[in-house]
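Practice problem 4.
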């Protein structure tokens, strides 16, 4: 376990390779802009007026600064299913915000965010004829984001996750925030939002502003990973400035929203590191000798049936599973060991807006098994590429420690074998969906804080 500040200051010299900087920092005396909840803004107010004006202008442009060009940047360079997802999108959204200021003529513009936990319907300002904010979508004005993904209870659990990789995403593999609410909003809205050309829908930017807000909120009490492989990552020439010059950004450049010149209206300024409590950065590593894995799997189950594999545990894994399930283990702060399930080779379902629920050791599992069942682990959704050429085989990682704890308290836990189970749910939420793994594996691992 290592200790780090949860809000890192800009590392001097790390942006030297940038042709242009997108990093307006507080130290340079620039005004800190406030990103506001779209629910608090009038449709004809300055923020949405500027946004519409810039969209109209950018749709007439044929280079990377244009509306299509910005979407192609995402299609070509976006980071998903790995731990670069949050910093890449923070840089991308900030760069876009700079373009909106330039092409709207409103130097004070700050991109709003859509808090879909409070307001699960697409904002009313994003519908209507002859409206630059409207877009072709599978969803309509009455389509709500599902509570099991974006509801307050689920978001509280996500924000309580201690490990950065489990919260965000892993070096390889999708974590809880990305695989749950992030992907769900993309798939639920549909249309371009369900593809890697999703930035063509104006709601994309408010969705990702909210994802960024959640990272900033999580950072108030949790530290990012200290791994050099993450901190030293750079995105070379992947963005574009208002004058058309290429922009390069590093992960270490984007770890403080204050230093980047913006705040969220419900968070305010970041605490001063000199007076704030130091957040604990907990990096977990899998213990290879305690990992059990299936053989290579290629399987598609009948619609509505669970895809599962029974994994006999070894003595070490069984011992850890038993210990973390004891009532006293739930009170340990912070937890030293977690039990995780890793699913590799998962295929995005063909049916739009369908998703998968994950359980362990549930002998009666069917599509009607509720998410408050003690065997439930998580609900996951999918964000598929627009061209089918990359990220088509997905890896998801789940922390099953809370499930083991529930089963232990209910005296329903057996640790001689662990059976991860995935069951598809159709887009209407009432019938079964498909689940398919191709050349993949399902494994159970013990991760220990280092």
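Answer key:
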């Amino acid at each position: 376990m290592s200790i780090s500040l949860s809000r890192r200051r800009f590392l001097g010299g790390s942006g030297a390779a940038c042709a242009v900087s997108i990093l307006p920092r507080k130290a340079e005396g620039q005004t800190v802009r406030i990103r506001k909840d779209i629910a608090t803004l009038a449709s004809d107010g300055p923020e949405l007026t500027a946004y519409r004006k810039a969209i109209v202008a950018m749709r007439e442009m044929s280079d990377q600064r244009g509306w299509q060009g910005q979407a192609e940047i995402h299609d070509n360079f976006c980071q998903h299913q790995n731990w670069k997802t949050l910093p890449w999108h923070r840089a991308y959204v900030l760069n876009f915000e700079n373009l909106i200021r330039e092409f709207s003529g409103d130097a004070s513009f700050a991109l709003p965010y859509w808090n879909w936990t409070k307001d699960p319907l697409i904002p009313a300002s994003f519908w209507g004829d002859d409206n630059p904010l409207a877009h072709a979508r599978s969803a309509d004005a009455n389509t709500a984001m599902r509570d099991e993904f974006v509801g307050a209870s689920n978001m509280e659990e996500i924000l309580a996750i201690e490990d950065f990789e489990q919260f965000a995403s892993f070096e390889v593999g999708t974590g809880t925030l990305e695989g749950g609410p992030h992907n769900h909003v993309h798939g639920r809205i549909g249309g371009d939002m369900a593809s890697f050309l999703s930035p063509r829908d104006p709601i994309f930017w408010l969705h990702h502003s909210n994802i960024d807000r959640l990272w900033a909120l999580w950072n108030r009490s949790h530290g990012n990973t200290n791994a050099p492989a993450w901190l030293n990552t750079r995105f070379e020439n992947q963005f574009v400035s208002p004058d058309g010059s290429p922009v390069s950004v590093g992960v270490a450049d984007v770890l403080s929203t204050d230093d980047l010149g913006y705040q969220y209206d419900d968070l305010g300024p970041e605490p001063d590191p000199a007076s704030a409590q130091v957040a604990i950065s907990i990096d977990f590593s899998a213990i290879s000798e305690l990992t059990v894995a299936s053989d290579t799997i290629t399987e598609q189950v009948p619609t509505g049936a669970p895809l599962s594999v029974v994994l006999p545990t070894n003595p070490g894994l069984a011992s850890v599973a038993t210990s973390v399930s004891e009532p006293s283990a739930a009170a340990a702060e912070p937890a030293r060991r977690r039990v995780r399930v890793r699913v590799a080779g998962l295929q995005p379902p063909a049916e739009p807006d369908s998703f998968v629920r994950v359980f362990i050791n549930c002998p009666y599992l069917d599509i009607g098994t509720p998410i408050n069942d003690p065997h439930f682990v998580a609900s996951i959704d999918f964000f598929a590429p627009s061209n089918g050429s990359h990220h088509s085989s997905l890896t998801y990682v789940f922390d099953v420690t809370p499930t083991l704890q529930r089963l232990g308290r209910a005296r329903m836990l057996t640790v001689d074998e662990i059976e991860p189970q995935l069951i598809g749910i159709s887009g209407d939420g009432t019938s079964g969906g498909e689940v398919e793994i191709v050349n993949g594996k399902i494994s159970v691992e013990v991760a220990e804080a280092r």
